[in-house]
Predict the structure of tRNA threonylcarbamoyladenosine biosynthesis protein TsaE.
Amino acid sequence: MPAAQARSTHPLPAARLERRFELPDEAATLAFGKRFARALDAVRALSNPANNERFTGLQVQLTGDLGAGKTTLVRATLRALGHEGRVRSPTYTLVEPYSLETSSGPLDVYHFDLYRFADPAEWADAGFREYFDRGAVCLVEWPQQAGELLGVPDLVFALDIEGEGRVLIARAYSETGKTCLERC
Ligand code: ADP
Ligand code: MG
């Protein structure tokens, strides 16, 4: 476990929606990733710039121990959004960017793995702040490592190992996150 694991994220408000998903095997995790990608596409397609309902991006924090399935879920989401190449775990680079062409238009996705992130000053230096401010989808593993820098996410996916499978507790903290989670 990283030394700073006790660091906590932003104190979160009450969730607007909480759902529990049983994921008995890896196929179930992949299927959830697919549903999440479709929900994301639908939410983006629904947002209407004419009504000032622009999609302003989405931050998803993925929590859970090593091996809980965070990267597996990110990989499934990226594949379902149309990414055909490899999905590297950004353990050393901290972030891996993806420029995708989805059915709801071009979409930037940033996959963070903050396991080795230690110095909050690095946040601004690395320009991470801007990634969250560009209408992109940010999928963040080990969000605890960034302390309060991340602010309140749209969604938290908490994965737990249960027997041979996994349990996912998903919580939404914004309207966009809620609409998305309702469609999963
Ligand atoms: P993390 O990023 O949380 O450290 P990974 O996604 O790298 O975890 O690894 C998760 C491991 O668990 C992989 O070996 C994957 O095949 C497996 N796995 C993923 N989802 C499930 C599931 N629902 N049930 C059982 N095994 C799973
Ligand atoms: Mg991982």
